[in-house]
Amino acid sequence: MSAVLDRLGSPSLWRGVVAVAAVALIAYPVLYDDLFYQNMIILSLVFAIGAVGLNVIMGYGGYISLGQSAFIGLGAYTVGIATTKIGGDPFVWVPAAGVVAALFAALLGLIAMRTRGFAFVIITIAALFILQIVAINWDSLTNGTSGITPPLPRWDLDYQNWPFYYSLVVLLAASLALSWWIRRTKIGTGLLAIREDEDKAATIGIDTPVYKIIGFVASAVFLGMAGGIYGYYLAFIDPQGMFDIVISVQIILAVILGGRGTLWGPVLGAFLIESVNEYSNQELGGGNSRLLIFGGLLVLTILLLPKGIIPSVRDALERRARRGKAALVGARLADRRPLNGKPRVAPAQPPRTLLEVKGLEKSFQGVRAVAGGSFEVEEGTITGLIGPNGSGKTTVFNLIGGTMKPDAGEVWFDGRRIDRLSPWRRAYAGIGRTFQITRVFGGMTVLENVVAPLRSFSLAQLRAGAVSGEESARAERLLEFVGMAEYGDQPAQALSFGQRKLVELAQLMMLGPKLILLDEPAGGINPTLVARMADVIRELNEQGQTFLIVEHNMPLVLGLCDPILVLARGECICTGAPAEIQRDPRVLDAYLGEDFKLEEPVAAP
Amino acid sequence: MAAGASRGHHDSGSRHHKRMTEFIQQTAFGLLIGGVYALFASGLTLIFGVMKVINIAHGALLILGAFLTFTLWEQLGIDPLAAILITTPAMFALGWVLYMTMVRPLRSAPLSSTVLLTFGLALVLEAVMGLVWGNNSRSARPSYFDQSFDVAGIVLPKAQVFAFAIAILVLTLLFLFLARTWTGRAIRAASANTQGAALVGVDIARVSVLTFAVGVATVGAAGSMVSVLYPFLPGSHYIWIARVLSIIVLGGLGSLQGAAIGAVLLGLAEVYTQTYVSTEWATAVPYVLIFVVLFFRPQGLMGTRLREDVAV
Amino acid sequence: MRRYTVRRLLLSVGVVVAAMLIGAGCSDDDDGGDSGEPITIGVSLPLTGEFSQPGKAAKQGYEVWRDTVNEEGGLLERQVELEIRDDASDQNTVVSDYNALIQREDVDLLLGTFSSLLNLPASAAAERNQMLYVEPAGGAPEIFERDFQFGPFFTQQATAEKQGDLFVDWLLNLPEDEQPKTAAYPVLDDPFALPVIEAMRKKLEDAGIETVYDEIYPVSTSNFDSIADSVKSENPDLVANGAQFDDGIGFRRSLSKVGFEPKMLFQTNAPSFGSQYSDGVGVKNTEGTFFAISHTPDATTPGNEEFVQRFEDEFGEPPAEDAADAYASGQVLQAAVEEVGSIDDQLALADWLRDNTVETILGPLEWEDTGAPIGEFLIGQWQNGKAEIVLPEDAATTDEIITVRPAAE
To answer: Of A35, A254, A299, C11, which residue is the least packed, with the fewest Cβ within 10 Å?
Structure first.
């Protein structure tokens, strides 16, 4: 028994299962002329195409859309209207259906760009119902509640379903291919990053609005085509049936039940859902029992099996496989390999200003966090930024990095003014930052975390493979550099805090930044790791990397940074070399208050 | 189809007067119904404020309240508006149970889970109501149902006026409860800052279940009113959830005052659209409002932004 | 290792394909039954949902017909069995119901569902499966404009746009001072209600009656107060409301609420529901309301008396219009099958109906090639708490026609 279970974990077995299922699917109508089951499979295919598409925006991207059936409706109406008003075979118009659905998805994406979470769900619901109402009222185009009857297929009853069946199989294959391709390129890692932590994703160069639109369009295009075929198949296209929110719910349920984020989960879920649908229609008389079953299934799945079937099975098998073995992440810190890179271009002489902050102001409902802060960072330095708690250091980082906009003041970087730019544009310009409480994408592997950042918004970058190819090779080298190479395929959430810091740093370096902002790099980690951090920083700096570091660990700061900026009560009160700062009375006053005087200067490690 | 055509042979003064009268009449309709909408939306706003849960089953709970009231009226002859005294505590209890079994386990789950869960719950409720009461439309018809007050040429249907008065009363009680009692203040504290409230000794677990139950109870009261004002059937919950979503988006999530104002605005918008634009498009009003508001002013009139704030 | 697994893969695929081939070869080839076996007739009806009231009535009508036929020896000497499903007033469900009935249950014949909204897709499903489609309650003209071969045949006297004809003719023949001068047309967005009122409006407008209100309200409308008030503010002499059931009742009551009583009131559907209508709006509010109807229990058409008697015996109350229409559908189907002599050639059955007239409890029914009936609808009016037939004269149950509603005076 346990041998059988062990076998269950092997990927080749599952590949075999998929191959067998695919062959059976393709052979079925040839061998069996049972129209009833062919009908069931056709409906399952439509659901599957919807679910695979939804998985892109919801499973990968984390954005729930309750409006997917809108694309079915749009596709069906496109085909129905075109074929009755213009003419031609309905199948000819199917690609147009996909285009219409994609356009609508892009439009909705543009509108919904500024919304998140609840707001997005609500907008998708509203969009669906508005479309339904438009379909009902614009009766010169859609024939209103009377619906459209496309020309009926007139070929032999025995083969009648074949064109519908096989065209849907092709569409399913295409949407699976798209989903698979997205997942293994940086588009996929970007979507996952958005799902895990959208604000952080923005800081590593992911143009979140555009990604979301791409994801949404990808979810719509094949479903629109499937909708066109579906409408033709049903022989009746009407607002109630085509813009039905219960179908949206069924598609979501298929994704959740099968396993969101997986490739085959949505397909499995769709076939299961359609079986339940038919069962409740035929045996239980449709209507209320169908609603009861689907509502109940939705509730139970979320309460009891929130990850879905495939991930749960996978997890169970994995847990079994890992029983008795120590987790890799608990092992000792591995060695790191020094960077054998070409030395960077030496900074110009005299050293030029890389970052300039002028008169920054930021208040939070009356509390002035940053009040007229102004300072400069020279290229090629490791500049320290210190100050007591509440002096506004992290806020300054937020303002430089772009996650907050200043109330007043300017930020200049590399000769350009950047305070109006979005976080990803600042990343493209060459700014990378870490966070005080380290943020990595927990649901992605360590390697995926490091591959995710986008150096520039280009087709080449987007298309780049995430698990193989140049980008991932580069990511692996960076992981070796920080000493995390062995953890490449571990989920990032399993890492310790210190390990996450190293991964976050590797992420930044993927961007090839000109300036790295480190927010308390030594906070909360053991001295060995602190030393490693310092080594890494020094080594990078020798190659020309500029740093701006916020730190409380005085020995580290005094030993590593020169110059040091001191921030207090929202403004920069002085700047200078470590030795000067230690003795400056204003600094002491800000940190410790008047009563306290240092006995002797603090020595560097 | 064309909208109402010319008005026959009247002089312009009288025509103007007629238009004014009709405008005031329609405004009266809108305001009256806005009061009921406000009561309906208050529960959802309260629940969202404390738990950050958007309860999509709110519409279905409203219809459930309506069905319960209908049965009380049909079987026992209890006046539907008086039945509020029964439905409110009954729905309070139901809210308690629902929270404990379904919402509480998902406390730390992502928002997607609660949205989908409550949607599933809405479907289950719709199905159960259909199985128990059937899918025909009902409405409670007490004696005053078809009667109206005539105030200076303006018709005010009695049922609407009574419902409005009771809605104002219940809302006032709710406001007082939140403002003057310890529990109410605890709820407001938890709504403003859950962690902070916990730190100063507010029992968040108890406040959560209480808030949810109170939210559902107000829906019970609103449901009793709906049973008299509109014919309803199990499938009616969709249009109601559309309305409540539109109201909280308009008024701003988490703000009771905003919800009240949003409710009245929605009532007026629906009535004006029905009269001056076209009856066909009146049902689109809540959805269009959602779009417009979320696009131009996501925080609504006076609430917290629906966009999540930047993290540290 | 790789070669090993690829070989295994091919082997397992081969095994599965072989299994499927064997399975396909062994599967039943169930032909239709021989004589002696019952004839199954597949039906889907809205037993729940928006149309559940008339849906249940239709079911009763079909059942009475089945019992009548079986008692007389059956159809082609075979007993008739009904296979009835609930489509929950949903268009998708009705399609999957008929598909399942045809493809899975292998029914021999079909009978239609209730409402134009549902018969539109259902008839397409029947046509796709190349089966005759006879339906009792789908009069929207759209249904007959699709060039189908196997139907659909509507077993009432006229399609929607003709149902108000007799009423309009009577109205236009009234003396000048009794004729309405202005009219309002609030209509439900429904494929049946719209054409009825559209046709009436055109004829009345052509005759000089001014349209002062003309609006379509969506199915989801639940508050009719403001619509009723808009109508009231135009003060029309005639109000013609295209409705189904619930909205007809809702609108009628809102008229009372806003205190408006038009001189003449015509409503589709709702007033034909007998006591359900008078309970819903209040008996005193029914007085003088006109409606169109296809059947009355008092008619002297062949078989009607027996039908009404049998219905009352079985169900304890006189048959609603929809039950009678369903019974008539059964009669039509029966006639076609018996005259053609077999059930195998569905096209032959359809062609026979095109060329012949069938005597039913609704009177003689005959059809255009499209399946649209050629005939005249009855017009009814509520008088003294009772629904009477007033037009045409030879079918009238009362001599009087109220021209101005007493409440309006």
So the answer is: C11
Q: Out of C13, C48, C92, name the one closest to residue A23 (CB).
A: C13
Distance of alpha carbon A168 from alpha carbon A267, whole angstroms: 13
Within a 13 Å sphere around the CA of A440, how many CA atoms are in the beta-carbon half? 29
Nearest residue on chain C to B133, alpha-carbon basis = C48
Distance from CA of B6 to the nearest CA of C (A): 6
At position C7, the amino acid (one-letter code) is R
| CA A18 to the chain's CA centroid | 27
The pLDDT tens digits of the residues spanning A104-154 come to 999 998 887 777 777 888 889 999 999 999 999 998 999 888 889 888 887
Q: Is A593 exposed, middle or buried (0-12, 13-18, 19+ CB in 10 A)?
A: exposed
Question: What's the confidence (pLDDT) of residue C5?
Answer: 57
Hey, CA dihedral for A364, A369, A374, A376, is it positive or negative?
negative
Where exactly are the structural domains of chain C? 39-159+300-365, 162-297+378-408
C-alpha distances in Å from residue A489, one per residue of A197, A332, A467, A500: 19, 17, 10, 14
The answer to whether the beta carbons of residues B26 and B258 sit under 8 Å apart is no
Taking the CA of residue C394 and the nearest CA in chain A, the distance in Å comes to: 35
- What does the block give as tokens for A568? 């207090």
- Name the average pLDDT for chain B: 85
Q: What topology is assigned to C39-159+300-365 in CATH?
A: Rossmann fold (3.40.50)
Q: What is the pLDDT of residue A331?
A: 55
CA–CA separation, A244 vs A247, rounded Å?
6
Q: What is the pLDDT of residues A347-356, one digit of tens each?
A: 566 778 888 8
pLDDT tens for residues B242-264?
A: 899 899 888 877 778 888 999 99
Please tell me the total number of residues recorded for chain B in this structure: 312
If one looks up domain A353-592 in CATH, what number appears?
Answer: 3.40.50.300
**What are the sequence ranges of the domains in chain B?**
28-238
CB A418 within 8 A of CB A406: no
From the list A122, A199, A288, the residue facing B130 with the nearest CB is A288
How is residue C215 written in tokens?
A: 């609006």
CA–CA min distance A229, chain C (Å): 15
- How confident is residue A589, by pLDDT bands cut at 50, 70 and 90? confident
Other beta carbons less than 10 A from residue B84's beta carbon: 23
What contacts A598, CB < 8 A, 6 or more positions away? Answer: A582, A588
Chain A residue closest to C25 (CA)?
A31
Contacts A114 to B, Cβ<8 Å: 294-295, 298, 307
Q: B163-177 burial string, b = 16+ CB within 10 Å, else e?
A: bbebbeebbeebeee
Distance from C-alpha of A533 to C-alpha of A535, rounded to nearest angstrom: 5
Domain boundaries, chain A: 34-243, 353-592
Q: Report d(CA B71, CA A176) in Å as an integer.
A: 51
In the complex, which subunits touch B with 3 or more CB pairs below 8 angstroms?
A: A, C
Write the class of the CATH domain C162-297+378-408. Answer: alpha beta
B116, B121, B284: residue with CB nearest A133: B284
The answer for C291, left when phi > 0, alpha when psi is -120 to 50, beta otherwise, is beta
Nearest residue on chain C to A155, alpha-carbon basis: C128
Peptide bond into A521 cis (omega under 30): no
The 10s digit of each residue's pLDDT in B192-244 is 777 888 888 888 888 889 999 999 999 999 999 999 888 888 888 888 988 99
Q: What is the pLDDT of residues A37-91, one digit of tens each?
A: 888 899 999 999 999 999 999 999 989 999 999 999 999 999 999 999 998 889 9
Q: Please state whether A156 falls in left (phi above 0), alpha (psi between -120 and 50) or beta.
A: beta
Q: Parallel, antiparallel, or unpaired for β C134-135 and C182-188?
A: unpaired
Residue C189 distance to chain B (closest CA, Å): 8
